Amino acid sequence: MLAVVAMAFAACNNGGTATTAPTTAAAACKVGVAWATFQEERYGLRDEPGLKGAVEAGGGTYVGNDAKNSAETQASNISTLISSGINVLVLNSVDPVAVLPSLQAALDAGIPVIAYDRELESSKVLFLTHDNVEVGRMIARAVTAVQPTGNYVIIKGDKTQTNPIFLRNGMQEILQPFLDSKAITIVAEEFTDGWKAELAQTEMENILTAHPDIQAVLSENDNMATGVTAALGGNADGKVKIGGQDGDTFALNRVALGTQVVSVWKDATELGQAAGKAALELCKNPDISKVTGATASKTTGGLDSYALLLNPVPITKDNLQVVLDANWITQDKLCKDVPAGSVTGCP
Question: What is the model's pLDDT at position 339?
């Protein structure tokens, strides 16, 4: 089986053989994508169409599967992709440690790998994501701008992944002066398995029992911010200042309503497109350092590698027009239940 995969990859890479002349290198490029989950709105609605579209526009073939947040399922899914003769693997990991044997199987088969949106501790994969440290800064910057004092809660993502670390580090940079002056106190922070809204709601309910006087919550994504909002009974008056990220439809509506301060928009369609284009490049040349836009980087564990980082955009009530102009969200969804004329973008 590995020999077959290697032959397929060699054909895609053109192996340096001048006598082999397919119409395009991409024509033989089969890109396999192992998705962690479509639980978050963005992955199925934004990332996958962007990635699939870019691969197919470049003459390649897309095949993907969903692990439904199960590390065991993802291991099986990756094995299936390798067996199907993929030339490049885009890996959106459920668990960055549990997935390492599957990653090694792909690398042993000569298949270049892109770590999509979630870091893998390997020097041999290209990490492609938005700048999540900056996302953390943006969340904290927007919330502290409107709530520079009081008791803060931080709801973090899954502790098995590194994105929560990046986000938390970015938040800390902005929070540190407020903590030093004692203007802000972090009364609680929790990791959330699977980034699940229902778990974030339970966490927030427990925090409110112990600390009923909360002024702000920094949530590491919009899905968990939904759970936080539910725990606050909808936060209809916007009294508790909530920050999140992903630009999910329901979160952007909350920004328009005033029940969430910011949703940092990471154009997931753009990220998918970037991954699709990078995959086509890797099909021609498996050297991750040669991918357009890749820069030398270090993994969280200190390994030398390469990363391609896209820029996020914080969306507040003052710049909602940005996501409307990008056709990221329709006006009716953005402005649902929003009083006419109360914010720009909602006439």
Answer: 94
